[in-house]
Design a protein that fits this description.
Layout lengths: L6 E9 L3 H9 L1 H7 L6 E6 L7 E8 L3 E7 L3 E3 L3 E8 L4 E12 L7 E11 L4 H26 L15 H11 L6 H13 L2 H5 L3 H8 L3 H14 L2 E8 L6 E5 L8 E4 L4 E4 L6 E7 L22 E7 L4 E4 L7 E5 L4 E5 L3 E6 L2 E6 L5 E5 L5 E7 L9 H4 L3 H6 L10 E15 L1 H8 L1 H21 L2 E7 L2 E6 L2 H22 L4 E16 L2 E5 L1 H10 L6 E5 H4 L2 H8 L4 E8 L6 E8 L10
Parallel strand pairs: 18-20, 25-27
Antiparallel strand pairs: 1-8, 2-3, 3-4, 4-6, 5-6, 5-14, 6-7, 7-8, 9-10, 9-13, 11-12, 14-21, 15-20, 16-17, 16-21, 18-19, 22-24, 22-25, 23-24, 25-26, 27-29, 28-29
Helix pairs in contact: 4-5, 7-8, 11-12, 12-13
């Protein structure tokens, strides 16, 4: 049988947008493919043949009628430079399809980006050429039209000519009015209302706080809080997604924390993971189906924007060598997908990969180079090991007072234990409370204690924390960021004087903080925290006196905490102490409040 000749098409065009914007538009394959009217795709699990690179089997119906199946291989890319993808078809008129997207600075200079598309189609039979002309080539040309439209409406292209979304406008109006009763900015309500009514199905079904904040030029925390209130009113819906801590792709989703499984498997990384609140459980939002039916169709599962922490990715056959770009970011590493072998990298170096893992050959290289000295094909990713602050992790959102107030029933199943890699615990203690009850009587003293709980809750809430529980006259609070916990503690000590003046009281507080790993559990139908970090925080608080904040030396040395304390003009007194029930001496620091400068909470 005669082998048919492939068709290669090259399209080039300059656009008045910068490289970063062009990359975001072109590398978001789900958004782009939806916009240009391609067909949704169903993907199977990652699999590989002996010695070969892994792939996913995919299936779709062209124009909803003609079934096609193919093997889709991993994308290769270098951020803001290029990406390539290859499909080898198992059915239909094509043998394979390859696309390369390249970005470069335009020769005309200024904020101009040159886009070059190279598309190669190999027909499987005589029907392949008509299919290329009627479906394949027009789809490639639409990518350029998509960019042209994106200049005017930031990617909300009308290329697909889809019908207007079916929105229950009466319900949208009613719930938007209800949202106004909550502490939410009117401009947020107006923007959300418009977005839910007019955005694409992809955008309506994936309400990402960081992306909305950027688009609306609002604070990310403000948008996140607004979406929590919107979920409470019924404008939006929320679900919990289990995210692989390495490839950071969603593996499963749950309607409630109580449905969360203790372990999950990532087929791409080939590893069984324990669920972890700050690395593998993420809260995601979508428009509520009573307001609008919107579904995020899947067009791609391996594109660059799906894994934005990966700066470059290459397929290397045995003996291949690849050069990776220099990346001016901390915590970079090389990782072999599926094998999950990792090695930290600096700004440059030469690395070799064998069946035994990674070895560093030299640090004298001009960039980062990799040699595949194994006997199999591998996929190597150069990625940032740090998690983005844009991700709404379970650790972050469950530490917010708004979440606990609005969704108190969102707890783990009884007996379920989920690890948190890093959390900050604050304990407060009301000094002289026993004498207070003796002097003022039970009813009066209880009222004064309750009043100070409200004061503490407000300061904790303003600094992105939440009250976990009260224990007698003490409060236990949690923060996902150490600096937020320290800032709340300092604000409490600074403002307790004004609170006392307003209430004609003389309450004195001592506070202690500790950061580290913990376990999240269901305790009396509330989300609670246990472990050594909690015990240490409670013991550290006992080392202080009125007007002081005690924290560990390790906590003080964290960059954001150190920067915060340095700006306040505080008196720092390092000391060591043996804490009850804790092995060994602990290095602690005493922050004296009387020398503290003004602290703004929030």
């Amino acid at each position: 049988m005669m082998k048919l000749k492939p068709k290669v098409y090259i399209l080039e065009q300059e656009f008045p947008i910068d490289r970063k914007m062009a990359w975001q538009l072109l590398a978001d394959n789900n958004q782009m493919n939806d916009a240009i009217g391609l067909f949704p795709v169903s993907f199977g699990q990652a699999k590989s043949e002996t010695g070969g690179v892994f792939y996913r089997e995919a299936a779709a119906k062209v124009m909803g009628l003609v079934p096609m199946k193919w093997q889709e291989f991993p994308f290769e890319w270098q951020e803001q430079e290029y990406y390539t993808v290859e499909r080898q078809y198992l059915s239909g008129p094509l043998l394979y399809y390859k696309l390369k997207v390249e970005l470069s600075d335009a020769a005309s200079g200024g904020m101009q980006t040159k886009v070059r598309l190279t598309a190669e189609f190999a027909p499987c039979n005589a029907l392949g050429y008509p299919a290329i002309q009627t479906t394949g080539l027009p789809a490639v040309k639409k990518i350029m039209l998509y960019l042209e439209n994106a200049q005017l409406d930031t990617g909300q292209s009308a290329l697909a000519k889809k019908p207007a979304p079916k929105v229950n406008h009466a319900e949208l109006e009613r719930l938007s009015n209800e949202l106004g009763a909550y502490p939410v900015a009117p401009e947020f309500i107006a923007l959300l209302k418009t977005h839910l009514a007019e955005s694409s199905d992809q955008d309506a079904a994936q309400l990402v706080p960081s992306q909305l904040a950027k688009r609306w030029e609002m604070d990310r925390e403000q948008v996140l809080r607004g979406l929590l209130y919107a979920t409470k009113t019924g404008l939006s819906d929320m679900s919990w997604h289990v995210i692989c801590p390495n490839c950071r792709v969603s593996k499963d989703d749950y309607r409630s924390l109580s449905e969360l499984e203790q372990q999950f498997h990532c087929d791409l990384c080939g590893v069984l993971y324990d669920a972890n609140f700050d690395q593998s459980v993420e809260l995601q939002f979508a428009v509520h189906p009573n307001v609008r039916q919107a579904y995020a169709e899947v067009y791609c599962v391996g594109g660059p924007v799906i894994t934005p922490h990966v700066k470059a990715q290459r397929i290397l056959q045995p003996g291949d060598k690849a050069e990776f770009p220099l990346v001016d970011e901390a915590s970079m590493r090389l990782r072999v997908l599926q094998k999950n072998d990792q090695v930290p990298v600096g700004q440059k170096g030469s690395f070799r990969y064998t069946e035994a893992g990674w070895t560093e050959e030299s640090r004298e290289a001009s960039n980062i180079s990799v040699i595949n000295d194994s006997t199999k094909d591998i996929v190597v990713a150069l990625e940032n090991a740090d998690w983005s602050e844009d991700t709404v992790t379970a650790a972050k959102v469950t530490a917010m007072q708004e979440f606990r107030d609005l969704f108190s029933s969102e707890v783990l199943a009884p007996g379920q234990k989920i690890a948190i890699g890093h959390v900050t615990i604050l304990f407060t203690d009301l000094k002289g409370s026993t004498a207070l009850y003796e002097e003022a009587g039970d009813a009066n003293a209880y009222g004064r204690v309750r009043g100070h709980f409200d004061f503490l809750t407000e300061q904790i809430k303003q600094n992105s924390g939440s009250v976990v529980k009260t224990i007698g006259d003490a409060v236990m609070a949690v923060f996902s960021k150490p600096a937020d916990g320290v800032k709340a503690a300092l604000a409490i000590q600074e403002k307790i004087g004004a609170f006392n003046e307003q209430t004609n009281d003389t309450l004195l507080l001592r506070l202690g903080l500790f950061s580290g790993p913990a376990i999240a559990v269901n305790s009396n139908d509330r989300l609670d925290y246990f472990g050594r970090t909690v015990n240490l925080a409670a013991r550290v608080q006992g080392q202080g006196d009125a007007g002081e904040v005690i924290l560990s030396q390790e906590l003080l040395e964290q960059p954001h905490v150190a920067a915060l304390v340095d700006t306040q003009g505080l008196s720092l007194e390092p000391f060591t102490a043996e804490l009850k029930g804790i092995t060994g001496e602990q290095a602690l620091v005493r922050l004296r409040m009387q020398e503290m400068a003004h602290i703004e909470a929030g």
